[in-house]
Design a protein that fits this description.
This protein is α/β, with parallel strands linked by helices. Helix content is 40%, strand content 12%. Helix 4 (109-116) links the parallel strand 2 and strand 3 (120-125).
Length: 490
């Protein structure tokens, strides 16, 4: 049974209707909360639903609109935040026992920017613990299910955020993307997911996994909605030392420019010529997207990025190394879970043993080993050199092409338990998405048809750093062409 919504109201439609008085925020909120009430126990997209608070905020917004106030471009739009983004006085757990019940004393910058734009927070979404996973099976609070087919995973680590949009619980949500954790679940759940340029969206208030890779971005039903949300949450933040010191780019105005004359490169290695395990139906949809872009006037050609085949190897040294450092703060002393011990060392050990799940422990150990004396240069240092090479090769490709194209995920949504016994098989889910995190460039997933199993397929559009406008321009055309192809097939 599918709980995915057909023809849902978009964020732009909701905001325009609420701002104009055609409907009100309270009515919109009741509709979305009713949907949550009907099927959330089966989908489990949320760790926490803030129904009473959301209704109060909707009523307050309606009063402001009635008084003639401009409440912002996301007026009355129901949104959700991945449960690794701080919300003042609202539990923020990272889906980990070690932070169960912890309530931050401050908001993430993105939470404030959404609220200031008129969006209303509905709840905090489930994720793989500390964002470590590709299926949302690693949550301490149980897995999220794919709204298209409850026997399958929604992807990860932002599976709850992707599922919440796909099920129509919210019109937009935010996730974090460290190695594909927005784009891969977007592909598996049939929604749009964006990883912005590193530093384009503030990470202040995002609980860190791997600080040089983490990036916040939106999930939405449409490319236009994603563009609007990106405009709201993007731009410089003095609270984030890695924030790019320039305003958010204008994106909504470029969406109808088409692709005539744009240069699109199809990445050879991700099309089965170097990276194994990408399924034939996913390759077929990606080739169809490329052919459709060519027919729409783009100049499409193949491009080789040899270092991309080593992206996974580099990532699984860099990311765990940074995680082992970031997660050392969870010691049972300052906040979160505390297990008793005869002394500080025993207390630390007992707390981390009880508080962290297997995947988090696995990555902490990998990272600690990679950073240890005698191994640092052989592992971490080499991984960083490979990261530099990968960035250089992408830069060279972007001398020839405006954007690049590839599959988002090597397969459609798989069944629960299919890959949990083999961590390497799970890690391979991010083989097409990881390179953009290592290079810091933006990339996004756009739904394009279905696989042989009837599940959604996502096509990935990649662009150079800070070139979100051309990425969204091409993504909007991919979306239009997908709708055209679907209409022709019916």
């Amino acid at each position: 049974m599918s709980h995915a919504v057909d023809n849902p109201s978009t964020a732009i439609e909701i905001a325009q209707a609420v701002a104009s008085g055609a409907t009100n925020a309270s009515t919109v909120m009741d509709e979305h909360l009713a949907r949550i009430e009907a099927s959330e126990t089966e989908v489990h997209a949320f760790n926490l639903v803030l129904a009473d608070q959301a209704r109060q905020h909707a009523d307050a917004l309606d009063a402001r609109i009635a008084a003639g106030e401009d409440v912002g471009p996301l007026a009355g739009v129901p949104i959700a935040l991945k449960d690794n983004m701080c919300t003042r006085g609202i539990a923020t757990t990272c889906s980990s026992r070690i932070l169960e019940g912890w309530e931050p004393p401050y908001n993430a910058t993105v939470a404030d920017r959404l609220a200031n734009a008129g969006a209303i927070l509905v709840g905090k979404t489930n994720l793989d613990e500390f964002a470590m996973g590709s299926s949302t099976e690693n949550s301490a609070f149980g897995p999220t299910k794919n709204p298209h087919d409850l026997s399958r995973v929604p992807g990860g680590s932002s599976g709850g955020s992707a599922a919440a949009v796909a099920a129509g619980y919210v019109a937009a949500s935010l996730g974090s993307d460290t190695g594909g954790s927005i784009r891969q679940p977007a592909a598996l759940c049939g929604v749009v997911g964006v990883k912005p340029t590193y530093g384009a969206v503030s990470r202040y208030g995002l609980i860190a996994f791997a600080s040089s890779l983490d990036q916040i971005g939106p999930f939405t039903h449409t490319v236009a909605d994603a563009a609007l949300v990106h405009e709201v949450i993007g731009g410089h933040d003095p609270l984030d030392s890695t924030s790019i010191p320039q305003p958010a780019p204008a994106l909504t105005e470029v969406l109808d420019r088409g692709v005539d004359g744009l240069r699109v490169g199809l990445i050879d290695e991700m099309m089965g010529h170097g990276i194994d395990g990408i399924s034939a139906d996913v390759l077929a949809r990606t080739n169809e997207a490329a052919e459709a872009l060519a027919a729409a006037g783009a100049k499409v050609d193949r491009v080789s990025i040899p270092a991309s085949i080593y992206g996974l190897s580099s990532y699984y040294l860099v990311a765990p190394a940074e995680a082992s450092s970031n997660l050392s703060r969870y010691d049972g002393v300052r906040y979160g879970l505390r297990e008793d011990g005869a002394n500080v060392v025993e207390m630390n050990t007992a707390t981390r043993t009880a508080g962290f799940g297997d995947e988090v422990k696995r990555r902490i150990m990998l990272g600690t080993y990679a950073l240890s004396a005698g191994y640092y240069d052989a592992y971490y240092g080499k991984a960083q050199r490979l990261r530099t090479l990968l960035a250089q090769e992408f830069n060279e490709a972007y001398q020839r092409f405006d954007v690049l194209l590839s599959p988002t995920s090597p397969c459609t949504a798989f069944a629960f338990g299919d890959k949990t016994a083999d961590p390497m098989a799970m890690y391979l889910n991010d083989v097409c998405t990881i390179p953009s995190n290592l290079s810091g460039d933006p990339a996004m997933s756009v739904p394009f048809g279905i696989g042989d199993d009837g599940m959604p397929v996502g096509v990935q559009v990649l662009a150079p750093a800070t070139h979100e406008p051309v990425m969204f321009q091409v993504a909007a055309e991919v979306e239009r062409l997908a709708a055209e192809a679907k209409g022709a097939a019916q």
